[in-house]
Design a protein that fits this description.
The protein is mainly α and about 400 residues long. It has two domains: about 190 residues, MFS general substrate transporter like domains (Growth Hormone, Chain: A, Up-down Bundle); about 180 residues, MFS general substrate transporter like domains (Growth Hormone, Chain: A, Up-down Bundle). Helix 12 packs antiparallel against helix 13.
């Protein structure tokens, strides 16, 4: 969209029921349930397993590092999703993930922990490929007005499974051992692949640009940063979500020093946030329908800023209320941006812009977490909370200024 093109305000947006009436979307959603169930069940269980094998918290933490590293390969995963037909890519990726996960059956002792890291790294790459390819599938499958409810429903499925499936995985690990978790995860991926293989969709023609490898790999980044509306919206999201990386660290101090509660209480806050994130996904399309995409991003980020500020409180009611706002605000902002990106991106670049977005959001968040962990021993956690709040609230500046400039009539 050029600077002179009208921005997407409160336009016609479909409802959750509208998108659920489409059989192909229901099939895609069913595959998403099984794929995400296997994904969510494995990642936390693998960390617990490493802790059991080694007795080391640091070794267990490296599982999450292995999960985050594939974000750096986003240019490659985005190309894969744009160069080939996406339904076969999704199907093959789920089958490959199932095969890779089976390698965990070979692990018998702490000496083989390296194999767990390798498997987690490879299967985490599969989730990035899936996300990139699915973005293009949704764009080919649905009208613009149905993208917001579709993204909201898939987000709710994702968040809901992140609450339930790790508990199931940990329970199976405790009762029957890791081999049964591996079998369950493998079966989930294979069912997802079977469902996807039966999905019929007329996909957009994929162009094969004659550009260099570097040019095609960075095309998604260049498109996002060169777009008149996507650039400020993405900058707002990157700053705000990156700041939440600090919250991932300070929340431990909030529970311990601020509330005087045991560390186990963190599970209550995480569960509360997860439930509200499901609600956020289900209500996102209604908010977008009422106020439009840019304002939904701003509202979501402002809620995030308020929730971050409240997380530094010593009152339990305020911290719980902040968790509710966090669960609503983040999904609203992210779903609105993803919908905007899908609408504004050509079909041939959906995968690369999706992968680029994931990288630009996830890498700063991980970096912020590492920085906060280093500073927490030197600075009071409430100082970090205040700084993060100011950063979140300031992050809406690029998008608000862009909207004001767009509202000024041409001379």
């Amino acid at each position: 969209m050029s600077a002179g093109v009208e921005e997407p305000h409160a336009q016609a947006v479909g409802t959750n029921r509208d998108v659920l009436r489409i059989p192909a979307f229901r099939r895609l959603g069913l595959a998403w349930v099984f794929s995400n169930f296997g994904d969510s069940a494995l990642y936390l269980t693998a960390a617990i397993w490493v802790k059991q094998l080694t007795g080391s918290d640091a070794a267990a933490g490296l599982v999450f590092a292995a999960l985050g590293l594939p974000a750096l390969l986003a240019p490659l995963t985005g190309q894969l999703a744009d160069r080939f037909r996406r339904i076969p890519v999704l199907t093959a990726t789920n089958v490959a993930a199932a095969v890779v996960v089976l390698a965990l059956l070979l692990v018998r002792s702490a000496d083989q922990v390296w194999l767990i890291y390798l498997v987690i790294f490879i299967y985490a790459n599969a989730s990035y490929v899936t996300s990139a390819a699915q973005s293009g599938v949704l764009r080919d499958l649905l009208e613009d007005r149905l993208l917001a409810p579709a993204n909201g429903l898939l987000s709710s499925v994702d968040q809901g499974l992140r609450i339930v499936s790790p508990l199931i995985g940990a329970g199976i690990l405790g009762l029957w051992g890791m081999n049964w978790v591996v079998a369950m995860t493998c079966l989930s991926f294979l069912i997802a692949a079977l469902v996807l293989s039966r999905l019929r969709l007329r996909e957009a023609v994929h162009s094969h640009e004659p550009d260099s490898f570097w040019a095609t790999s960075t095309a998604g980044f260049r498109f996002l940063l060169g777009h008149a509306l996507l650039r400020p919206a993405l900058l707002t999201l990157v700053i705000a979500v990156g700041a939440t990386g600090v919250l991932n660290v300070t929340i431990f101090a909030t529970v311990d020093q601020g509330l005087g509660l045991p560390p186990e209480f963190l599970s209550v806050l995480i569960s509360c946030q997860g439930v509200m994130s499901v609600v956020g996904g289900l209500t996102a399309s209604a908010v977008i329908r009422r106020v439009g995409i840019p304002r939904t991003i701003v509202v979501g980020i402002l809620l995030l800023g308020v929730s971050v500020l409240g997380s530094g409180s010593t009152l339990l009611s305020v911290v719980l209320g902040s968790t509710v706002l966090l669960g609503l605000g983040v999904p609203w902002a992210i779903i609105a941006f993803v919908t905007l990106r899908q609408q504004e991106t050509p079909p041939s670049m959906q995968g690369r812009t999706s992968a680029a977005t994931n990288m630009m959001i996830n890498v700063p968040q991980v970096g912020a977490s590492m920085l906060a962990a280093a500073l927490l021993g030197l600075v009071d956690y409430r100082t970090l909370v205040l700084a993060m709040t100011a950063l979140c609230l300031a992050s809406v500046g690029p998008l608000v200024l862009r909207r004001r400039a767009a509202d000024v009539p041409a001379a």
